[in-house]
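Retro notes - structure team

What went well: the batch runner handled both jobs without manual restarts.
What didn't: labels got mixed up in the shared folder, which is why I'm recording both outputs here explicitly, each with its sequence directly above its tokens.

Job 1
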Amino acid sequence: MSFYDSGLVAHVIGVMSGTSLDGLDLAACSFTRNSGKWRFSIEAVRTVEYSSEWRQSLGTAHHLNAVDLLQLHFRFGRYVADCVNMFISDYNLTKEQYAVASHGHTVFHQPENGLTCQIGSGLHISLVTGMICINDFRTADVAMGGQGAPLVPAGDELLFDEYNACLNIGGFSNCSFRKNRGRIAFDICPANIVLNALTEKIGKSFDENGCMAATGMVRSDLLETLNAHGYFKLLPPKSLGREWVDEFVMPLLIKSKYEIADLLRTYVEHIAIQICQSLAGYNNILVTGGGAHNSFLMNRMQHLSGSAFVVPDSSLVDFKEAIVFAFLGLLRLRGQDNVLASVTGAPRNHCSGLVHLPPIFSTNLRE
């Protein structure tokens, strides 16, 4: 088996930590390429739910000083490696066949300032697992003047081209589709990162199926203010970070003094409106991410749009981003483009990610 040759099966474990802080997603995948077409199969999946300590550490990482953030970067890398090792052991996977592709956990994303930061040291992942690790997929694109996001559309283009558009509703909602013979993609709006922050104020980690939101009422003044933000008038490429949530969305919601149920209901309506406006005219839309399980949100989207939203089986719904980052890691090892300039605004397509090889130990310096 080789990661570098065409026509052979390549095995990669994709690791994803999203801004909604649901947990660490792991997907062991195999990839083949025949007649120019990539295919994948899912061999094993798991979500490692974050402890309250990890949720606190990751959720407040943007407030840390440089030294403490670097320490968290190394500690989270070791944690990811421990999760990978346990995952491999529990599913009886053959470690020697696999590489690890880790997205890391986003702490800062300010491409307008030339800054993006995903913690989770790839060097520590490689050292603790003894495996090749690919990480830091965004920094090179930002350094080239791109948005550094979204990156999943490269996987949409090569793995899911039977759909007219792909929609992910995670911490942020984002979409990708073909337009004028190129791939277009962008962040639509914050999603679960806001909904979960609201439910946490009443001691719940999330609003299951949107049941609480369904009991609230839309506050039209708040909805109008949310929808009027200038970001929604910008043309792609464009992307969002949690800083935008902290600076604009949460202060606006809290200042309104409305009940949590009303805030949830209003924000669900905001998400549905922005998604339907962004994908107007597209049909056969693949929907993945935690938001696909929010039946109230999905019903609102269907009500506002005539499009067909396709929700696949739960493995793909919950692990699509981990699957795609496994694929992006494979493309990096093969030296093939895995970032699309039409998506990020970089000057050209490119092959991004840092590759960490496990150290080789010797007892004799002169060997």
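Job 2
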Amino acid sequence: MKKERALSILIVDLAGGVISAGLLSVFAWSAFLRGDSTVTEIRELSATIAGSRRVLGELRTSLDQQSTVLKQRQADLAEGGKLPEQTPIEEYFQTLSQVASTHHLHVVRHNPLSPRTYPGLLEQRYAYEVTGTMPDIARFLKAIEDAKFWADVSYLRIGAGTQQGDGNSGERVAALTISIFSSSRGDGSNRG
């Protein structure tokens, strides 16, 4: 019986040794042989993380630039519709004279009229008279409408021009009231 027992213990020890050797082989294979692919995977993962950090930095820079552009556009939009506080009357009339000349019109006169005030608004009015052909006058009126300054034609009368020669010159006289707008301070000191 001792022999059988010794044999059983030997078989159990042998089975334990085989199992231990198998486990050591699996561990050695995963640590040494498969280790190269793990190192490669770790390097690839590190490169991916570094690339992602670079892209994130670029996105943050782009976001900062777009935020700056957005703030500028919002400021431009807020200022774009505001009436001027000081009206550059001389500049407006120089521009009007250039526009009239461009459209082959002759400025006959421009005289100031009495200003009108409304809550927060000052309307400075001027009598303006030009002569030329009807198509030229129409183009001139369209140019005033498209102008970038706060001016408008608030009165218009077009009549026959001077009759020279045979009377078929086609020249007309346009009498306009040009209203130039600015914000009013309430004290009438905004007359430009």
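One thing worth noting from job 2: The longest strand covers residues 121-133.
We'll revisit the folder naming next retro.
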